[in-house]
């Protein structure tokens, strides 16, 4: 008889694990999936492309409902099917509408939730986050009937939201708490080049800013953003994109050991040997995750153990940063700011909009920032991950792989 695998979360990490498992051990489990959204599995990182008009919702669906049927997977999708309780003693999960499923193995892939700033007015109409299809549809609807959008957050998600709203015809201002865009992924030089290019496209920025409240009109709809310097911005749509937090409330209520996320070992197993977890909801060796590459690697390792092959271990590698804004080339990886014991090599061509910075320590590449020309990004990442000595190619390294090979 097949063992029972229940998956809580129908997102990219959970379903990638199921896909890997169907290849590794297609007959091992009877699989039941619970998802809070009323769709099949879709590519969340492509939501910005939907907002831009480059794709529609159908284009970003990874697994349609028929895929679940074809693979013998029971899918419970929609808000009423949200799992609200895990009974670890009896190995059952309970959905909001009373649906119950027993498990031999449980996989938690509940993802993350948007960080909501603790400011007056954050519950006004017209104030949203940028996390799912519902949010995108709201932004598209506002773009057809309103003019002024303010995006809080100059990180990857915020800039992608701002760019999409700009393309849809809104006047957009990005508000960022730092004086450098993508300050967690870029150094100051690259961040300023990015800001200049986005300003040329029509985006406006209020940098190193601190907002104090969102002001509403008589109907309870946002109308303005108020800052600590007394200035205001007209606002019909306020998009919050200042980060995410692991969604661990369900795991905590079940008594699973959690830190910032659900704590897992190198096999993606929680402190309960029957329960595994992957994706943005986990904490592994102190790290939490927000990019897709580590999530897919976690899925591969987790499936390896769920299939009883039990050989793989998850190792956190430096994740590379890319911005999904058409025509803008940027890449960063590793310790790109460096430290007192590192050295940096630079190549700068402001007229061409090209900037490269490589950070070296003990004859090894430990970080890189590329702007305007990212051709060698994957090669630099490979050198970094493999901790190869660059002593013999140090003088040519900044010019890229082709130059080194020719040399």
In this structure, how is the largest beta sheet organized?
5 strands, parallel
Report the mean per-residue pLDDT as an integer. 95
**Can you tell me the number of structural domains?**
3
**Helical percentage:** 10-25%
CATH architecture identity of the largest domain: 3-Layer(bba) Sandwich
Distance between the termini: 61 Å
Q: Beta fraction of the residues?
A: 25-35%
Main sheet strand line-up: 5-2-1-9-21
Q: What shape does the CA trace take? A: globular
- The parts where pLDDT drops under 50 for at least 5 residues are none
**CATH topology type of the largest domain:** FAD/NAD(P)-binding domain
**Number of helix segments?**
10
User: What is the SS-derived class?
Assistant: alpha/beta
Number of strands: 26
CATH class division of the largest domain: Alpha Beta
Instruction: Give the CATH superfamily of the largest domain.
Output: FAD/NAD(P)-binding domain
Using only CA atoms, what is the Rg? 23 Å
Topology:
Blueprint: E1 3-8, H1 12-24, E2 29-35, E3 41-42, H2 47-52, E4 61-63, H3 65-70, E5 74-77, E6 83-87, E7 92-95, E8 100-102, E9 105-108, E10 112-114, E11 127-129, H4 133-145, E12 148-152, H5 156-167, E13 171-175, H6 188-201, E14 204-206, E15 211-216, E16 222-227, E17 232-234, E18 237-240, E19 244-246, H7 249-253, E20 262-264, E21 275-277, E22 282-284, H8 292-306, E23 330-334, E24 343-349, E25 354-361, E26 364-371, H9 377-386, H10 401-406
Parallel strand pairs: 1-2, 1-9, 2-5, 9-21, 11-18, 12-13, 12-18, 13-14, 20-22
Antiparallel strand pairs: 3-4, 6-7, 7-8, 10-19, 15-16, 16-17, 23-26, 24-25, 25-26
């Amino acid at each position: 008889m097949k063992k029972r695998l229940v998956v809580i979360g129908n997102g990219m990490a959970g379903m990638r694990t199921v896909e890997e498992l169907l290849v590794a051990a297609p007959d091992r489990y009877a699989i039941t999936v619970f998802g809070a959204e009323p769709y099949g599995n879709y590519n969340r990182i492509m939501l910005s492309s939907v907002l831009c008009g480059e794709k529609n919702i159908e284009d970003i669906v990874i697994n349609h409902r028929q895929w679940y049927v074809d693979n013998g997977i029971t899918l419970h999708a929609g808000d009423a099917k949200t799992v609200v309780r895990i009974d670890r003693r009896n190995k059952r999960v309970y959905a909001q509408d009373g649906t119950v499923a027993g498990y031999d193995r449980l996989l938690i892939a509940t993802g993350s939730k948007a960080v909501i700033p603790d400011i007056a007015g954050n519950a006004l109409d017209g104030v949203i986050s940028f996390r799912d299809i519902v949010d995108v549809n709201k932004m598209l609807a506002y773009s057809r009937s309103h003019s002024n959008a303010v995006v809080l957050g100059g990180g990857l998600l915020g800039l992608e939201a701002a760019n999409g709203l700009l393309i849809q015809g809104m006047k957009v201002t990005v508000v960022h708490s730092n004086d450098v865009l993508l300050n967690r992924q870029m150094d100051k030089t690259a961040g300023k080049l990015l800001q200049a290019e986005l300003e040329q496209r029509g985006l406006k920025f209020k940098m190193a800013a601190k907002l104090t409240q969102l002001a509403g009109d008589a109907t309870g709809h946002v109308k303005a953003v108020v800052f600590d310097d007394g200035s205001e911005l007209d606002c019909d749509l306020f998009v919050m994109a200042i980060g995410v937090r692991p969604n661990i409330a369900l795991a905590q209520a079940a008594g699973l050991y959690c830190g910032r996320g659900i704590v897992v070992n190198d096999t993606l197993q929680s402190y309960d040997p029957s329960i595994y977890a992957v994706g943005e909801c986990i904490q592994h060796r102190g790290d939490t995750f927000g990019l897709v590459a580590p999530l897919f690697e976690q899925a591969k390792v987790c499936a390896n153990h769920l299939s009883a092959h039990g050989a793989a271990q998850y190792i956190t590698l430096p994740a590379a940063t890319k911005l999904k804004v058409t025509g803008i080339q940027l890449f960063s990886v590793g310790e790109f700011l460096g430290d007192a014991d590192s050295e940096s090599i630079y190549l700068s061509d402001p007229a061409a909009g090209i900037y490269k910075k490589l950070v070296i320590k003990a004859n090894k590449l430990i970080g890189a920032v590329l702007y305007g020309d990212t051709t060698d990004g994957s090669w630099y990442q490979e050198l970094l991950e493999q901790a190869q000595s660059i002593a013999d190619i140090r003088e040519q390294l900044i010019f890229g792989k082709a130059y080194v090979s020719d040399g």
